[in-house]
Design goal:
It contains no helices and 6 strands. The protein is mainly β. The strands form 2 sheets. Strands 3-2-5-6 form a 4-stranded antiparallel sheet, with no helix packed on it. A two-stranded antiparallel sheet has the order 1-4. The two termini are 14 Å apart.
């Protein structure tokens, strides 16, 4: 799963509802928080550009993601290689 400047994260919702994406560094610090708003049921994709919430490029490394909807929380990891 290593990616360069950006990556596309895909997820599915069984029913319409809000979605929130949070990205953390391996130290547990919040890097970026993206309110995805209310989404319809079905497949969705969001692109993360390897930048923090202030718009600065983050360094190469492993990042943890947390996708929260009104019904569940999913976790994943990704590796950014600059």
């Amino acid at each position: 799963n290593p990616f360069g400047g950006q990556t596309t994260l895909r997820f599915e919702l069984a029913r319409p509802g809000p979605a929130l994406l949070e990205i953390f560094d391996v130290g547990g610090r919040l890097v970026d928080r993206v309110d995805l708003g209310r989404r319809g049921a079905g497949g969705h994709a969001v692109t993360w550009d390897g930048r923090d919430s202030a718009g600065r490029e983050v360094p190469s490394g492993v990042y943890l993601l947390r996708l929260e909807t009104d019904r569940r929380v999913e976790h994943g990891r990704m590796t950014l290689v600059r």
